[in-house]
Amino acid sequence: MDTPLLKKLWEDKYQIVPEQFQKIKQVDAVATGFNANIDAVYHMSAQKLKELIEQQSLSLEELKNLERTSILDEKDFLKGVFRSFSLGIAEEWICENEKVYQWLQKNIGYMHLQIGGQGGIMANVLSVLGVKKVFVHTNSLPALQAEQFEKRDNLLSFDQNGHIQPAYLIDRSQDLPLIHWIIEFKRGDIIELEGQKFKCPKANRFIATYDPLNLRLVLDQNFMKAMLQTPLNFVILSGFHALLSSNNGVELIEGIVPKILELKQKNPSAIFHLEVASTQDISIRKAIVQKLIPLMDSIGINDRETIDLLFALGEKSLAKRCDEKTTAESLLKGLSKIKEKTGVKRIELHMFGLYLTLQDKNFHITPEKNLNAMLTASVVAASKAKTGSVEFENIQQVKYDVSDVGLIEIDSLGLLLGQSELITSGIGRYRSWDLIVVPTILIENPLSLVGMGDTISSVSLVAAR
Ligand code: GLC
What we know:
By secondary structure, this protein is α/β, with parallel strands linked by helices. The protein has helices at residues 3-14, 17-24, 46-55, 60-64, 74-87, 98-107, 118-128, 143-146, 221-228, 249-266, 282-292, 303-312, 316-324, 328-342, 367-387, 392-397, 404-416, 422-425, 452-462, and strands at residues 29-33, 37-43, 91-94, 112-116, 133-136, 155-158, 164-166, 179-185, 190-193, 196-199, 204-209, 234-237, 271-275, 298-302, 346-351, 354-359, 427-430, 433-439. The chain is built from 19 helices and 18 strands. The strands form 3 sheets. An 11-stranded mixed sheet has the order 7-6-5-1-12-13-14-15-16-18-17, with helices on both faces.
């Protein structure tokens, strides 16, 4: 079938989406944790990056010489930005030095503030889509953080006295504002250094995180206690990626395991999902993959994170293959290895142009429902990419313009698997599992990309009805 016909076929499938929005409103309760923070967004031009590099007298050789993937000084920050810019990749590096944080404030500043952290972003999205109650974990909630939450009464958190309230109304004034720098770049921007040109191949972002609370997995006991007494349909967790082994991160992960198990015991029918995020510390990554993922029903992941997890699982050659050839086919092999080794029942991958879910045959969510939810997520994500935020009025305006890249990838995946119908149905098989694929909606010039994966994963899960 030729591309225009395939596009039409998928546009027709996308017509189901408005119906799914009605169904999301029937979801009673979702809890998101553990990381919510404030994102300070800055759109970095190549020109500004060049100025900063020159200001720090960094040679090209130094810039490319990565000694670590964390931030101890301003130079590390610029190395990280340059790496993400020139490779077009998303990364997050941890900064433990308050001085660098002050340097960022003084030398870069930000264009605007918005909700950050997987837990925070997902809570905002799900509240906009009308889940009846969304409980968001916050380990810091001063007014500046509270203002980043949707002004909606279905989005709840806890004040300093442990009283549940709409999150936007809370002001735990003694709490420290946790601000992460989100440096976004545009595709095609060119930086010239020492006579060499580097072109940003893909719009993306680099995150510099200074966050003493999320870095230590500080928990709000009021939230933890209340969730044990609240019937929940979904528990969506993340934030472990910011831990460091040098700060007891592995022990903190081990310490959370019994708490998650207790929550599971109280909510046996809830779906537990972990959003995997860019985790630089290899011991933390190993702890996530060995100790947390096996407890989950579902995980959400992007292409880079797939490669990272494969390294953490000791699957070096598969990781390298995925890195060299980041196609749906090689990533599917990677996901299958992660699934086999961790026993997680559902994995959802989001990558440029398509989403792919691999799940157990008898999983609570049928492949058809998954497909509809993934289509819904694609519409919400397209709206966010276009406008920079998630608002229902904008979501309704999205034109179902299906990505060629996604269609081509799915078509070749189907042929390689000997399942030529994959491209038309979106549902197939891989080993003993169900495989569900969706070409996404294309947005030519995204305004913002941060939080896209979180949006996709949460909607793909909660809209599956
Ligand atoms: C990470 C970052 C946070 C950002 C989020 C987006 O959690 O720490 O700042 O909002 O990723 O996915």
